[in-house]
Amino acid sequence: MLYWLTEFSDGGDFFNLFRYITFRAGASFATALIFGFLFGQPLIDLLRRKQGKGQPIRDDGPQTHFAKAGTPTMGGLLILSAVLVSTLAWARLDNPYIWIVLLVTLAFGLIGFADDYAKVTKQNTKGVSSRIRMGLGLLIAALAAYAAAQFHPDTLTNQLALPFFKNALLDLGMFFVPFGMIVIVGAANAVNLTDGLDGLAIMPVMIAGATLGVISYVVGNFNFADYLGVHFVPGTGEILIFAAALFGGGLGFLWYNAPPAAVFMGDTGSLALGGALGAIAVCIKHEIVLAIVGGLFVVEALSVIIQVLYYKRTKKRIFLMAPIHHHFEKRGWAEPQIVIRFWIISLILAMVGLATLKVR
After folding, report:
1. Distance CA 339, CA 325 (A)
2. Which conformational region is residue 199 in: left (phi greater than 0), alpha (psi within -120 to 50 degrees), or beta?
3. Which domain, by its residues, includes 204?
4. String of b and e for 223-233 (b: at least 16 CB within 10 Å)?
5. Could you give the number of structural domains in the chain?
6. What is the rounded CA–CA span in Å between residue 33 and residue 250?
């Protein structure tokens, strides 16, 4: 929105700063962070008054979780509000990729909100039917993947870029949209599964979001893309504004979500943020790199899939409890120990993901 101030610039004054993505990204980060600090506590107080008993706790979960009874959920509203305000304020609103990512985030946030609302009002952990959530998610993802394909350059339309190989593309043709659906919905549900401990999901999301934001800036800049040998996708550099807002909003939320959490992210936040990561990856043609950068989320999701399939076949469990962070809880690891170690793993994976820009 504030990009229009460049109309007052003669090329050498203060208003010229608004032309630079890096300046607006920094401002977007600061806006989201301040928003989180200003409205975090009032939102928590409101959620506590409205929800009463807060998020229901699973009966079969670790015993330590029963001490969290009464903690309000839907804290993702704080992150989404900060991201929305900051992105609308600092991004170029004539950029289609910004709208694709933003609308996917908000749409998945609405699905998560409905699920959280059902859980809180019914005081059980079932919420909205998984079929309904999956169906709506696939529909949103299909529209987003199709839209992204329409705005990609002709040479990249329906193509899958392969990391580590210079100029390597795999033509998916009509299967690009289904592939994009899997990426977006898979990311949304993987983050949702990871959100099981105080602060566990938000930091890896911030790390992955920041990494994808940097990659977005690189692939959206012809000179950088040409130098590094990555595919140039005009306009995607603007996604850095969204990524910066996500990082700032995430920090604002983490202030209140750090152990012991004053509020849970809920499906409102986890589904939305996961969907955002998937949408960014599809827009910037780095879907495979997302699996590297978000490797922690992949492992969490795989642990559930493996556990379910193995149990159906043998009636035995591989993990003490899935997702895998609960397995380590059952083994006696303290919650902060698990959280911080998973953060470290996420940071390492982010470095590997960034390395794909140069190793070709």
Report:
1. 9
2. left
3. 2-355
4. eebeebebbbb
5. 1
6. 8
User: Dihedral (C-alpha) 28, 33, 35, 39: value to the nearest 10 degrees?
Assistant: 160
360 assigned to some structural domain:
no
In which residue are the tokens 């990249």 written?
156
User: How many whole angstroms from its chain centre is CA 251?
Assistant: 14
Question: Cβ contacts of residue 247 below 8 Å, gap of 6+?
Answer: 29, 32, 206, 209, 210, 213
The upper half-sphere exposure of residue 281, i.e. CA atoms within 13 Å in the direction of its Cβ, equals 34
Judge whether 187 lies within some domain.
yes
For residue range 80-126, list pLDDT tens digits in order: 999 999 999 999 999 999 999 999 999 999 999 999 999 888 877 78
Look at 289 and 166; give whichever has higher pLDDT: 289
- d(Cα 305, Cα 298) in Å, to the nearest integer? 11
pTM as predicted: 0.95
DSSP 55-81: SPPPTTS-GGGGGGTT----THHHHHH
Q: CB neighbours of 96 closer than 8 A, spacing ≥ 6?
A: 147, 151, 235
- Residue carrying structure tokens 């301040």: 34
For the chain, how long is the longest CA-to-CA vector? Answer: 72
